[in-house]
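Journal club side-thread
Mid-discussion, someone asked how the predicted structure for our own chain would compare to the paper's figures. Pasting it here so we can look after the session.
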Amino acid sequence: MPLVEHLRELRRRLIIAVLAILIGTIVGWILYPSAFDFLKQPYVDGIAPLLERKGFDAKLVLSGGVGSAFSFRLKFALVIGLVISAPVWIGQIWAFVLPALHHNERRWAYLLTAIGAPLFAGGVVVGYLVLPKGIEVLIGFAPESIDLLLTLGDYLNFVVRTVLVFGIAAQIPLVVILLNRLGVVSGRQLASARPWTVIGIFVFAAVATPSTDPLTMLFLAVPMVLLYLVSEVIARVTDRRKAQTAPEELSDDEASPLD
């Protein structure tokens, strides 16, 4: 395509993606009551033990003026819209990129997408499940003589950040396998770097998790380590297959065959 045609194609893809997000946001606005109950459930589960043990009242509040309720609902609806319309706008991105890829590259793109999407979804689910524990630990630092007032905006940011961190961390095997297929790292290099990688994973988990408790850090670090070990095994199998199918290398002083 000429450059102008590429720009027109990009504009068409962007319009479709924006319309899909807009429709998803409208659906999120309609589903707001039930979705908000689902959102606040980790908060309720996390603070319920503290309400009994410490005897203070922890509340979710809105702050920022008269329009704060509308702003929060719109922001929450936009988050829901991005999630609902993800297959559409991600599909538009792929539709714009795939024509530039060769057949083999397209096959790997489809395979990586098929693997990456369930891994990301699994990481999001784990992040949502550990939210109550993280909230309980963080709220536990509040003195017993005060009431804790947490704004809905801060709580939404906390939830989104937590599930995104867990979802992105679940992509470790995908990244490692991709680097191995590109020839950047080998299975033997991954094995030799394993101790430092494990230390780096625990440091990343300690920094990335919004809560400071070791249990939440372990919920993130242990699956990452296991996924890294699985990707190391896959990389070793891939290297062994490459060695079996690759032509035998000749030394510098050895003559190559004529045919």
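Post-session note: The chain has two domains: 1-161, 171-245.
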